[in-house]
């Protein structure tokens, strides 16, 4: 079997955020809070004369549900590292649905490439390059910073070096349902949408998971991003007293508490997620990050 390096990065559900435009991509990002989830992206990186990227979404039995060839952000990242590679990423969650999978794919790829090519970068260097690639391609703003570690994160500034506080568990399981993609570039590239989103930002860090849902729901309502499908799901949760909000940025809902799974199961496929206890790491026996 051809030699390769593998790494994993957890995904991230953003509850609320405020976009921050810096002078450079490193200083650009977002403030806000979210949940680092234990499901994410595994990246396999092998040396190759030319770069090619294959993205697979798989089902519970390992069957391929979706296959995508090529990824401008990942290709940009590899070029930044000065390497050419064959990259395969795998995930179990829907793509472009608010699970932070683009950030997870970039971070996992950077860690695996660093190991495969013996580049000698620190984990934060890998995250920094992943963050730049994500910001430039407008696939996200704060997910890379958030998923450097686990817990419920609150980012108090933009970029990976900002102060980030984290709530630690135990936490109840999180249940989510998605109604289709909500492409991030179209929203993050719209000045009008960014202005409305920033005006909805609650401005506080949550003290517990209950406050996280409260602030997230406030943001969802004020941001103007709620779709008809999300509205129906939120109303169903409200009727049963279940804390719920919209996945940012994704056309879906996440919820927690007794009865959440049952209510959401009537609306679509439910994904059961746990709050991650750590950030990204190598799967080659050498860890790429703590957490």
Describe this structure in words.
This protein has 2 domains: 162 residues, Ribosomal Protein S5, domain 2; 105 residues, GHMP kinase, C-terminal domain (Alpha-Beta Plaits), CATH 3.30.70. 32% of the residues lie in helices and 28% in strands. The protein has 9 helices and 12 strands. A hairpin with an 8-residue loop joins β6 and β7. α1 packs across α3 and α6 packs across α7. The longest helix is centred in the middle third of the chain and has 16 residues. It starts with a strand and ends in a 9-residue tail after the last strand.
Question: What are its keywords?
Answer:
about 290 residues, alpha+beta, Ribosomal Protein S5, domain 2, Alpha-Beta Plaits, 2 domains, eight-stranded mixed beta sheet, four-stranded antiparallel beta sheet, 9 helices, 12 strands
Kindly identify the CATH topology of the largest domain. Answer: Ribosomal Protein S5, domain 2
Tally of structural domains: 2
The tally of strands reads: 12
Query: What oligomerization state is this entry in?
Result: single chain
Which helices and strands occur, and which strands form pairs?
Blueprint: E1 5-20, E2 29-47, E3 52-58, E4 64-69, H1 72-81, E5 85-91, H2 101-116, H3 123-136, H4 143-146, E6 152-155, E7 164-167, E8 174-178, H5 184-188, H6 191-200, H7 209-223, H8 228-239, E9 244-246, E10 252-256, H9 260-265, E11 271-273, E12 281-282
Parallel strand pairs: 3-5
Antiparallel strand pairs: 1-2, 1-12, 2-5, 2-6, 3-4, 6-7, 8-10, 8-11, 9-10
């Amino acid at each position: 079997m051809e030699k390769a390096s593998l790494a994993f990065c957890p995904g991230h559900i953003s509850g609320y955020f405020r976009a921050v435009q810096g002078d450079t991509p490193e200083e650009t990002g977002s403030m806000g809070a979210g949940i680092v989830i234990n499901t994410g992206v595994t990246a396999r990186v092998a040396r190759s004369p030319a770069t090619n990227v294959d993205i697979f979404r798989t089902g519970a039995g390992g069957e391929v549900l979706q296959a995508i060839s090529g990824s401008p952000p990942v290709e940009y990242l590899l070029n930044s590292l000065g390497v050419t590679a064959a990259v395969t990423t795998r995930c179990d969650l829907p793509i472009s649905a608010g699970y932070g999978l683009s950030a997870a794919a970039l971070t996992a790829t950077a860690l695996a490439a660093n190991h495969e090519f013996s580049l000698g970068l620190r984990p934060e260097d890998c995250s920094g390059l992943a963050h730049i690639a994500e910001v430039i391609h407008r696939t996200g703003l704060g997910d890379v910073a958030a998923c450097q570690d686990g817990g419920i994160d609150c980012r108090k500034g933009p970029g990976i070096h900002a102060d980030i506080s984290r709530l630690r568990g135990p936490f109840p399981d999180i249940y989510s349902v998605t109604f289709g993609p909500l492409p991030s570039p179209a929203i993050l590239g719209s000045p009008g949408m960014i202005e409305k989103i920033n005006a909805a930002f609650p401005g506080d860090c949550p003290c517990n998971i209950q406050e996280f849902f409260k602030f997230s729901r406030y943001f969802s309502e004020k941001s103007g991003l709620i779709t008809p499908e999300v509205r129906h799901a939120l109303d169903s949760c409200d009727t049963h007293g279940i804390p719920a909000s919209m996945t940012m940025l994704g056309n879906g809902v996440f919820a927690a508490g007794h009865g959440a799974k049952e209510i959401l199961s009537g609306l679509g496929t439910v994904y059961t997620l746990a709050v991650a206890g750590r950030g990204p790491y190598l799967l080659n026996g050498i860890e790429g990050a703590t957490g």
